[in-house]
Amino acid sequence: MAALTALLTAASAPPTVEVSITGLRNAKGQILVCLTTNPKAFPDCSKDKASVRMAVKAADAGDFLIHAPAAGTYAIAVVHDENSNNKMDLAIFLPKEGFGFSRNPTITVGPPSFKSASFAVTGDMRQSIKMKYML
Questions:
Q1: How far is CA 77 from CA 8, 88, 131, in A?
Q2: Per-residue pLDDT reduced to its tens digit, 81-112
Q3: Which of 71, 51, 52 is nearest to 125 (CA)?
Q4: Helix (H, G, I), strand (E, B), or coil: what is residue 128?
Q5: Whether the predicted pLDDT of 6 surpasses 60
Q6: Considering only CA atoms, which of 42, 46, 109, 100 is closest in space to residue 75?
Q7: How does residue 75 score in pLDDT terms, banded at 50, 70 and 90?
Q8: Is 127 buried (19+), middle (13-18) or exposed (0-12) by CB count in 10 A?
Q9: Which H, E and C letters describe 18-80, residue by residue?
Q10: Strands 16-22 and 125-130, sheet pairing
Q11: Helix and strand totals (H; E) in the chain
């Protein structure tokens, strides 16, 4: 009976996305993380009250957990906020700090679409994100 209770509890718990970030150019500052189901709020989660936003020390970014509110289709955007000012710094129109997205879509001009970065979360899973630096 205890095993069944444990199974039911695990099944009803919100899913967890284990994130691994590679390619950081240094361990300064923090990683700003955004997990959203809203295509209109991607990659800037500030427009989505239901998004999961968090900051992870850059030194701990090799492996951390995001607790998704529920199963669904999500996309993750991350920024290497090297100076810890809680935003992406720009030089003219180019990001001065690193960034990355779930599923590592090809970056051309501007951020990728939600569709190219989105993935289905039906239970605990893993995403590996490779950082990109323009400057």
A1: 31, 12, 10
A2: 999 999 999 998 889 999 999 999 998 888 99
A3: 71
A4: strand
A5: no
A6: 42
A7: very high
A8: buried
A9: EEEEECCCCCCCEEEEEEECCHHHCCCHHHCCCCEEEEEEHHHCCCEEEECCCCEEEEEEEEE
A10: parallel
A11: 2, 10
- Scan for tokens 């936003």, then name that residue: 53
Sequence length of the chain is: 135
Neighbours of 26 (CB within 10 A): 10
CA 56 – CA 92 distance, rounded (Å): 27
First to last CA, the chain: 58
